[in-house]
Amino acid sequence: MPKAIRISKTGGPEVMEYVDVEVGDPGPGEARVRQHACGLNYIDVYFRTGAYPQPLPGGIGMEGAGVVEAVGAGVSHVKAGDRVAYACRPTGAYAEARVMPAAGLVKLPDEIDFETGAAMMLQGLTVQYLFRRTFPLRGGETILFHAAAGGVGLIACQWARAIGVTMIGTVGSDEKAELARAHGCTHTINYNKENFVERVKEITGGEGVPVVYDSIGRDTFTGSLDCLAPLGMMVSFGAASGPVPPFSLNELASRGSLFITRPSLFNYTAKRADLENSAADLFSMVTSRKVRIDINQRYALRDAAQAHSDLEARKTTGSTILLP
Fold first, then answer.
1. Where does the sequence pass through the membrane (predicted)?
2. What residues does 20 pair with on adjacent strands?
């Protein structure tokens, strides 16, 4: 029988169990995928801990790549034998094989291998919507991006360089700063040594930046607002340090009529046309070598708990995959 990671309760990495699962035939609108690699993302931690609720017992993981084994009635955009990748709900990607909604699958170009496909979809599509749609960058802007040496961050460094954007990135160590700069980040700030608000003001001549992309949450939120120029946009797309506490809207007015948004990839790719267009843009950036996907950690699927422990301890850089 195929193996998968399942959770029956929320908690630490130890709640994940490596078990046999029954994988049946796909129903209407579904596909069965034999997975070659699964992606690891911080959103998986949110589901594991219960920060994002889901029915239990259940699966975990939202990203993978493999080959379609069968499709159900009404599925025409993919067929058995197609190489595919995805980043979508419901959870359950940590598995050797799974039945899932076919609407979330996109065909993987031959030039992109399965490991890269599994490592790039959620993080790459996140950068795509952040840079192309949430606050569209046209080149020439100076931006602040937190966690610049993480999986999303390293893709953002390269994407920013490719479109002529000056990126200021925060990191937690000198080694991570060097990594971010090697991938195209113009200025790096080690938040364990420097005050990132003061450094951003210094770099921008006191003006601040038009947009901050913040996946850290509680620890950086107020500082991020302080880095914005008047009428700037705060994009809060994650909460690695914990959720942002309640705040008064007057905080936005007092800093210069700021804008704020809390986007989610799954709203930006809910429509099939949007998913295909976003994926095509991402695939083009990767196949043209403007963006390279760095897989810096590989774990066996059975070692998912260790992978989560390392992710939460900030021991990882770039992308991480689980291998069935």
1. none
2. 3
What token pair was written down for 201? 């003001």
Report how far residue 80's alpha carbon sits from residue 88's, in angstroms, rounded to the nearest whole number. Answer: 20
Alpha carbon 102 to its chain centroid, in Å, reads 21
198 DSSP assignment: H
Strand 259-261 relative to strand 319-323: parallel, antiparallel, unpaired? unpaired
CA nearest 145: which of 30, 55, 227, 241?
A: 227
Report residue 163 as tokens: 């479109």
pLDDT tens-digit series, residues 175-194: 999 999 999 999 999 999 99
Q: Which amino acid is at 183?
A: H
For residue 97, how many C-alpha atoms fall within 13 Å in the half-sphere facing its CB? 17
Q: What are phi and psi of 175, to 5 degrees?
A: -65, -40
CATH number for domain 3-121+269-323, candidates 3.40.50.2300, 3.40.50.300, 3.90.180.10, 3.40.50.11540: 3.90.180.10
pLDDT digits (tens, 9 = 90+) for 122-161: 999 999 999 999 999 999 999 999 999 998 999 999 999 9
**CATH class, 139-262 region:** alpha beta
pTM: 0.92
β 295-300/319-323 pair status: parallel
Tokens of 46: 């949110």
Q: What angle do CA 201, 221, 172 make, to 5 degrees?
A: 75
Strands 228-236 and 209-214: parallel
What are the structural domain ranges in the chain? Answer: 3-121+269-323, 139-262
